[in-house]
Design brief:
It contains 9 helices and 14 strands. The protein is globular and about 50 Å long. The chain is 28% helix and 23% strand. An 8-stranded mixed sheet has the order 6-14-13-8-9-10-11-7. Strands 2-1-3-4-5-12 form a 6-stranded mixed sheet, with helices on both faces.
């Protein structure tokens, strides 16, 4: 069973870092004020505001910002400002033993997917595919905040992950499997293949989502994951949304799922509200879940914080 980080409560300190692409200082400051108005204190990564082209700072510096938050005993949660590009380049500079000894909530999606899965895989801590700093604003749906705080601030167990009322979960291939849930953004996960940080899907429930990729690119991603054995190893598959993904060759995202995933015969659920869509379910990476595509229910079986 994975290590659960301590629960987040109002008055706690949140450490802000930029592990990938830079974010405009004005956006950082307005979102930071939103957190303060919610009752949280803030700690700053040294390179939170940095800009070095595609990434905020050299990989070693971005990695050290993450490590400094894990070492800082006053920090309860680590919150990336955004994803973007380049998060994978910090992985060789992380000390996974130190992280394992100092478990903290860390949340995000997009390119942060790589960090979330590696922290579970190499440090055995539960992480959260959920909100980033950019999401702390008035325009964020209440559903997203409710999901985030239920996962990170309560001991609710079991917890059924429900989509918003007007967005049904859909079970496509029937089955019932239980195991740790992993996954996230397809672009990011495909980028780990062939590296020391390749995602391990064996005995896991794999969920995937994507944004701004035409369906011919999604075809490539699914084919690459398949040839790497990731669908053979996993127990079941959950497909999130493909947000603003243009149709190529008259083939839709749903067509690809039917052509490439349904024939595998593994329990398959689609339309999960997560990642880049407007609505974001909180998915605890590494926690034990039950994927029941007979009764169309996705359940987190354990509390995800301690």
């Amino acid at each position: 069973m994975a290590i659960k980080p301590p629960a987040l409560q109002r008055g706690d300190t949140i450490g802000l870092v930029t592990p990938g692409s830079p974010l405009d200082a004005t956006i950082i400051n307005t979102r930071m004020q939103y957190l303060r108005d919610m009752g949280f204190n803030i700690a700053f990564g040294a390179n939170l505001y940095s800009y070095d082209g595609i990434v905020a700072a050299p990989a070693e510096k971005r990695a050290e910002d993450v490590m400094s938050m894990f070492r800082n005993q006053s920090v309860k949660m680590i919150l990336p400002s955004r994803g973007g590009t380049g998060v994978q380049t910090i992985l060789p500079f992380l000390d996974f033993d130190v992280i394992r000894a100092n478990p903290k909530i860390i949340s995000g999606y997009s390119d942060i997917t790589i960090l979330l899965n590696c922290l579970f895989q190499f440090s055995d801590i539960v992480t959260f595919h959920s909100l980033m700093l950019i999401d702390f604003r008035n325009e964020t749906p209440a559903y997203n905040f409710n999901q985030f705080f239920e996962a990170t601030s309560t001991f609710t167990s079991p917890r059924i992950i429900r989509n918003p009322p007007d967005m049904p979960l859909i079970s496509v291939v029937p089955g019932n499997v239980t195991g740790p849930i992993i996954g996230g953004n397809m672009t990011s996960l495909v980028g780990t293949l062939g590296t020391p940080f390749e995602i391990d899907t064996k005995g896991k429930i794999l969920f995937l989502e994507e944004t701004h990729s035409p369906t011919n690119m999604i075809y490539r991603y699914l084919a690459q994951l398949s040839m790497a054995g990731k669908f053979n190893d996993c127990l079941g598959i959950i497909m999130g949304q493909c947000t603003e993904c243009p149709v190529s060759y008259n083939t839709t995202y749903a067509d690809l799922i039917n052509q490439m995933l349904v024939p595998l015969g593994k329990p398959l659920m689609v339309n999960l509200a997560t990642g880049h869509g407007r609505y974001k379910a909180a998915i605890p990476i590494g926690a034990s879940v039950n994927l029941n595509t007979i009764d169309n229910i996705l359940t987190v079986l354990e509390a995800t914080v301690s």
